Amino acid sequence: MRKTRVIVNADDFGLTTGINQGIIESHLNGPVHSTTMMMNGHAVDDAVRLAQQYPDLHVGVHLVLSWGKPLASTSHSLMKADGTFRFTSRYVDEQPPAPNDVYLEWKAQIEAFLATGLPLHHLDSHHHIHGWSAIDSVIVELANEYQTMFRATGNENHQDLWLTKRFDDRFYGDGVSFATLDSITPGLSIEVMVHPANMDTLLPSVTSYVKQRLVEKDLLTRYTPPDWWI
């Protein structure tokens, strides 16, 4: 059978310590090859320490525009009165921001990551917001500036900058099962998105996707990939 490059990427590294630990366990005992870090998360320092401890885990930046607080002092137009981002997972129905404001905020997030000394593997974003047509030029500009790749969502005209040729988000919610992983087909390179975690006291307050993260961790740490995965 044809060998296929399969990247299993765990989102939300740095959000909480339980998420961090679930990702590390899914790397050490499962197929997680890479992860992307939320630089405004509650447990970034812990995530950096773990990434340094386990250098075989590739780490990128999970660019944020729809959770928590901005990092850049120039991001007032992106904020609500309480200082948090004004966008949600339903951003396509919301008033778009100025692309330059997003560029400055995301550049601040990338620079915060680089300041840790970790090598930048790739870029993606919380809720896939980098593929929003209103601002999708920003990820292209940043990928070129930092000489990196980004998740293959949106930007059909810039597939040369995609991390993989395909993106699979089915291992989520009701799709969290061995069957979903087994149904990945050989062929073009593919990234599989996952969200493993262990429970911690903060987790229920930062995400509505809680119990399934625990199930994801359990399945991923018991999954043996087929021999055509590379």
List keywords for this structure.
globular, alpha/beta, 230 residues, TIM Barrel, six-stranded parallel sheet, 7 helices, 13% strand
Description:
With 230 residues, the chain is of the alpha/beta class. The protein has one domain (6-220): Glycoside hydrolase/deacetylase (TIM Barrel, Alpha-Beta Barrel). The protein has helices spanning 17-28, 44-53, 99-114, 136-146, 178-182, 203-206, 211-220; strands spanning 6-13, 34-37, 58-63, 123-125, 166-168, 190-194. Strands 4-3-2-1-6-5 form a six-stranded parallel beta sheet. Helix 1 (17-28) packs parallel to helix 7 and helix 3 (99-114) runs parallel beside helix 4.
Which whole number gives the mean pLDDT? 97
Number of DSSP strand runs: 6
The helix/strand class is alpha/beta
Helix content: 25-40%
CATH superfamily: Glycoside hydrolase/deacetylase
Show unreliable segments: none
Q: Which architecture does the CATH hierarchy give at level 2?
A: Alpha-Beta Barrel
Order of helices and strands: EHEHEHEHEHEHH
Quick one: biggest sheet?
Answer: 6 strands, parallel
Strands of the largest sheet, in order across it? 4-3-2-1-6-5
In CATH terms, what is the fold-level topology? TIM Barrel
Radius of gyration: 17 Å
Q: What coarse outline follows from CA principal-axis ratios? A: globular
* Number of domain modules: 1
Taking the alpha carbons of the first and last residues, their distance comes to 12 Å
Count of runs of 4 or more consecutive helical residues:
7
The CATH C-level name is Alpha Beta
Percentage of β-strand residues: 5-15%
Q: How do you describe this structure in short?
A:
The chain has 230 residues and is of the alpha/beta class. The chain is built from seven helices and six strands; from the N terminus they run βαβαβαβαβαβαα.
